[in-house]
């Protein structure tokens, strides 16, 4: 008993007991909670990839290859990421209805769950941009003025000043951004579909993307009115000014000529 009491009074006894308790607690935690959660997540992800592969084989493999490596009819999907899949399939651009200069926007034939499965499979082929969360693309709290400045600098050349779209070369076009889901706008900036350049976070920050989305949401809102009255599709001050000079000034010249001609006739008569 005296020996046991002496050991209990040893200066290192408390430290040993504490370390033993921590080891037991950590062991139990590692053995039960995380393992089960990680295993469940891994199983769910594997099932999503498996189902996505089935959907891919039916709807995508004929153009993009059985392993996403690409063919003469479709580019490689290795490394495009889940965001590209969610955008292309979510906007109905893929599967492609027919070969052409550009894939048009149309109603999606897949449910959101199926799009998630396709995205999981394509993401498993190579790392790429992930599907953004609502916090990333929501326009709430964004700087609308800054978004307008960024849009006019980086996007207006193709989409025009208010996102109404515009023609490009060889039958291609910049689509109208009115009523487009903010998530799809964010994904388009991340992935650069078709002729559009990509704007990853290293080029344009997440906040800047939100600012652009907020600007588009404001100028294309049904409550928004053009301060200048009748608009010309938001082409911008240069194009709209040129229109005013050609047609407006041209109409004034035509009226002046008509008045002069009729005045001359009246004098002769």
UniProtKB/TrEMBL annotation:
Residues 1-30 form the signal peptide. It catalyses: a quinol + 2 Fe(III)-[cytochrome c](out) = a quinone + 2 Fe(II)-[cytochrome c](out) + 2 H(+)(out). Its main location: membrane. This is Cytochrome bc1 complex cytochrome c subunit. Residues 47-126, 142-220 form the Cytochrome c domain. The chain crosses the membrane at residues 242-261. It is found in: Cell membrane. It comes from the Bacteria. Its EC number is 7.1.1.8. Keywords: Cell membrane, Electron transport, Heme, Iron, Membrane, Metal-binding, Repeat, Respiratory chain, Signal, Translocase, Transmembrane, Transmembrane helix, Transport. The cytochrome bc1 complex is composed of a cytochrome b (QcrB), the Rieske iron-sulfur protein (QcrA) and a diheme cytochrome c (QcrC) subunit.
